[in-house]
């Protein structure tokens, strides 16, 4: 009943065309909606109304903005590399659209009498395709930064290439755990694998574990979510376009439709990583638990499209929530977090998971399992809690000055005390009760 | 000659042509972009040979990470827009070595496989690649990973400040 890998590649030409148009329209509408949604939610978080002039609830705001952008002057900087300057937004947008081709929207539906899965296509290595597309999407940003022939865009492009490569590694590693559990990289098969919970056994207890990988592989989901925010250049990781430091980052010199393409690509990427998170961790298009009690119809026909969209919107809300809550990280903090926390954590988690799967395959008795798990935990704790090298004792000022290298000047000590501003002083003085 | 053969040759020509463009263009960053075309064409060759997994890994690693890092390094040091005049080297030795090794390898392959008929293997899935690497080729794989580890440690040692 549920679509598997073998069900793809048999569609008529016009059904494929219809699906392509469907995915395209879905993405463009989602982009327009998400921009409005983001502005509205952030506005509510900041206690102001947000866009409310165009259409009901201001829903047509992003459409109006898009039309306005299209009629603006297209500026080409004098020093730009013309070919690459034009190519960069095209690369960004094409990669963003392509990645969505393998996202499953639902099970079999009938379109004008033809039974077909509600998914453009599926290949045995479908998730790799998404990763490859996001890898290619980096070019759009790097090249736009370089081709503008200007300093701020170049800095933004450099930042984003380093950032996206680092977080792509963490993202790929977090997905590996899903591959290991599902035993496949095809998205429709991964959704099928989450349909039913399985039987597990730990320390002699038999239990049924739930099917969604968000519960089963929680560390992977957390790492995926963090690296997805880094991968899509969203706040608090929006360093490539940090407004306070880089004007607009890589798209500073872009205007008119080319700028609109970058905007489109950014929001489509947001939708794509949310859709991938839904597919890989949240059971895909399947209805969540209380709804499944209503009957088998909830997972048939066109209904799953609704559940899929709801899950997508919840994840997009989290993106907006993060933007509304967290301040931007400093660049070095951000890179250190990616390389020194996320990647080692996912490696250890994959190792632990692989060990657990091997124990299940070998059918070890309970006490041996306990021994292995305990040993692993002890080693992990020992590494984490290993005493650090003590920092060198701080010398008194006179000795430091005496030890300075030959021929150098003594530096003033860094002990600047910021004086309290007169205004703050006045306020405290006002608050203090007069004796 | 089937359609696949024609496409293989056409994509192969694209790969070779863009590889020539990598070394002949005077725009530094565009050389990197031509390299993307070359590696992408090789990925398409893998796809045409039904090795899907290898093709997407090629895109993911080489196009998506290695060349981006290369461009990153170029832009970090110097990334002039327009022609660079100081990139040329004397053409003689390069032509000798490049053409010699290229033609030599091509001739060697043509001579070794001249009478061989290879049936197209089943689709190259991740499972088959994994079985091959961790079954028949596990020792070279481990040696390679030790080599990579050594390179990693070397990079750290080189970049560490003398204290």
From TrEMBL, chain A:
<dbReference type="GO" id="GO:0005886">
    <property type="term" value="C:plasma membrane"/>
</dbReference>
<keyword id="KW-1003">Cell membrane</keyword>
<feature type="transmembrane region" description="Helical">
    <location>
        <begin position="169"/>
        <end position="191"/>
    </location>
</feature>
<keyword id="KW-1133">Transmembrane helix</keyword>
<feature type="transmembrane region" description="Helical">
    <location>
        <begin position="366"/>
        <end position="386"/>
    </location>
</feature>
<dbReference type="GO" id="GO:0048038">
    <property type="term" value="F:quinone binding"/>
</dbReference>
<keyword id="KW-0812">Transmembrane</keyword>
<dbReference type="GO" id="GO:0003954">
    <property type="term" value="F:NADH dehydrogenase activity"/>
</dbReference>
<comment type="subunit">
    <text>NDH-1 is composed of 14 different subunits. Subunits NuoA, H, J, K, L, M, N constitute the membrane sector of the complex.</text>
</comment>
<dbReference type="GO" id="GO:0009060">
    <property type="term" value="P:aerobic respiration"/>
</dbReference>
<feature type="transmembrane region" description="Helical">
    <location>
        <begin position="302"/>
        <end position="322"/>
    </location>
</feature>
<keyword id="KW-0874">Quinone</keyword>
<keyword id="KW-0472">Membrane</keyword>
<comment type="similarity">
    <text>Belongs to the complex I subunit 1 family.</text>
</comment>
<dbReference type="InterPro" id="IPR001694">
    <property type="entry name" value="NADH_UbQ_OxRdtase_su1/FPO"/>
</dbReference>
<keyword id="KW-1278">Translocase</keyword>
<feature type="transmembrane region" description="Helical">
    <location>
        <begin position="334"/>
        <end position="354"/>
    </location>
</feature>
<dbReference type="GO" id="GO:0016655">
    <property type="term" value="F:oxidoreductase activity, acting on NAD(P)H, quinone or similar compound as acceptor"/>
</dbReference>
<dbReference type="Pfam" id="PF00146">
    <property type="entry name" value="NADHdh"/>
</dbReference>
<keyword id="KW-0520">NAD</keyword>
<protein>
    <recommendedName>
        <fullName>NADH-quinone oxidoreductase subunit H</fullName>
        <ecNumber>7.1.1.-</ecNumber>
    </recommendedName>
</protein>
<feature type="transmembrane region" description="Helical">
    <location>
        <begin position="83"/>
        <end position="103"/>
    </location>
</feature>
<feature type="transmembrane region" description="Helical">
    <location>
        <begin position="123"/>
        <end position="148"/>
    </location>
</feature>
<feature type="transmembrane region" description="Helical">
    <location>
        <begin position="12"/>
        <end position="37"/>
    </location>
</feature>
<feature type="transmembrane region" description="Helical">
    <location>
        <begin position="211"/>
        <end position="230"/>
    </location>
</feature>
<feature type="transmembrane region" description="Helical">
    <location>
        <begin position="259"/>
        <end position="282"/>
    </location>
</feature>
<comment type="function">
    <text>NDH-1 shuttles electrons from NADH, via FMN and iron-sulfur (Fe-S) centers, to quinones in the respiratory chain. The immediate electron acceptor for the enzyme in this species is believed to be ubiquinone. Couples the redox reaction to proton translocation (for every two electrons transferred, four hydrogen ions are translocated across the cytoplasmic membrane), and thus conserves the redox energy in a proton gradient. This subunit may bind ubiquinone.</text>
</comment>
<feature type="region of interest" description="Disordered">
    <location>
        <begin position="397"/>
        <end position="435"/>
    </location>
</feature>
<dbReference type="InterPro" id="IPR018086">
    <property type="entry name" value="NADH_UbQ_OxRdtase_su1_CS"/>
</dbReference>
<keyword id="KW-0830">Ubiquinone</keyword>
């Amino acid at each position: 009943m549920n679509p598997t890998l073998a069900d793809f590649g048999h569609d008529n030409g016009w059904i494929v065309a219809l699906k392509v148009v469907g995915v395209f329209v879905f993405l463009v509408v989602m982009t327009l909606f998400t921009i409005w949604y983001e502005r509205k939610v952030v506005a509510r978080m900041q206690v102001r109304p947000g866009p409310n002039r165009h259409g009901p609830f201001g829903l047509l705001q992003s459409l109006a903005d898009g039309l306005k952008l299209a009629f603006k002057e297209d500026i080409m900087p004098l020093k730009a590399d013309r070919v690459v300057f034009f190519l960069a937004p095209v690369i960004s947008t094409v990669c963003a659209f392509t990645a969505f081709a393998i996202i499953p929207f639902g099970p079999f539906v009938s379109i004008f009498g033809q039974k077909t899965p509600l998914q453009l296509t599926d290949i045995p290595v479908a998730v790799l395709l998404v990763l490859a597309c996001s890898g290619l999407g980096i070019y759009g940003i790097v090249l736009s930064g370089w081709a503008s022939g200007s300093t701020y865009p170049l800095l933004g492009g450099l930042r984003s290439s380093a950032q996206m490569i680092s977080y792509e590694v963490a993202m790929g590693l977090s997905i590996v755990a899903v591959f290991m559990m599902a035993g496949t990289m095809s998205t429709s098969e991964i959704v099928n694998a989450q349909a039913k919970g399985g039987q597990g056994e730990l320390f002699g207890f038999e239990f049924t574990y739930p099917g969604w990988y968000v519960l089963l592989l929680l560390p992977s989901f957390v790492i995926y979510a963090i690296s997805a925010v880094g991968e899509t250049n969203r706040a608090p990781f929006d360093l490539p376009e940090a407004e306070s430091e880089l004007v607009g980052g890589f798209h500073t010199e872009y205007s008119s439709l080319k700028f609109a393409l970058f905007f489109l690509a950014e929001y489509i990427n947001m939708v794509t990583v949310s859709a991938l998170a839904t597919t890989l961790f949240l059971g895909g298009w399947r209805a969540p638990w209380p709804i499944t009690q209503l009957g088998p119809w909830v997972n048939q026909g066109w209904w799953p499209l609704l559940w899929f969209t709801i899950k997508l919107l919840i994840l997009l809300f989290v993106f907006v929530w993060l933007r509304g809550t967290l301040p931007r990280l400093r660049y070095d903090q951000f890179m250190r977090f990616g390389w020194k926390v996320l990647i080692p954590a996912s490696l250890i988690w994959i190792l632990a998971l692989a060990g657990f799967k091997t124990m299940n395959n070998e059918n070890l008795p309970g006490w041996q399992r306990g021994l292995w798990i305990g040993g692993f935990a002890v080693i992990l704790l020992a590494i984490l809690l290993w005493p650090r090298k003590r920092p060198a004792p701080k010398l008194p000022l006179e000795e430091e000055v005496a030890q300075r290298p030959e021929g150098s000047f003594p530096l003033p000590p860094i002990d600047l005390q910021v004086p309290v501003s007169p205004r703050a002083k006045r306020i405290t003085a006002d608050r203090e009760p007069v004796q | 000659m089937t359609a696949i053969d024609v496409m293989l040759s056409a994509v192969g020509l694209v790969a070779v042509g863009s590889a020539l463009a990598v070394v002949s263009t005077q725009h530094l960053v565009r050389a990197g972009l031509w390299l993307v075309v070359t590696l992408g064409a090789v990925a398409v060759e893998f796809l045409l040979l039904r090795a899907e997994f290898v093709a997407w890994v090629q895109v993911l690693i080489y196009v998506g990470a290695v060349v981006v890092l290369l461009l990153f390094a170029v832009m970090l040091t110097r990334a002039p827009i327009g022609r660079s005049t100081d990139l040329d080297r004397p053409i003689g030795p390069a032509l000798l070595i490049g053409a010699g090794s290229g033609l030599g390898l091509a001739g060697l392959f043509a001579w070794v496989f001249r009478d061989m008929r290879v049936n197209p293997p089943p689709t190259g899935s991740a499972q088959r690649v994994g079985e091959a690497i961790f079954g028949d080729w596990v020792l070279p794989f481990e040696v390679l990973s030790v080599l990579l580890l050594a390179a990693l440690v070397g990079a750290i040692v080189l970049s560490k400040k003398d204290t």
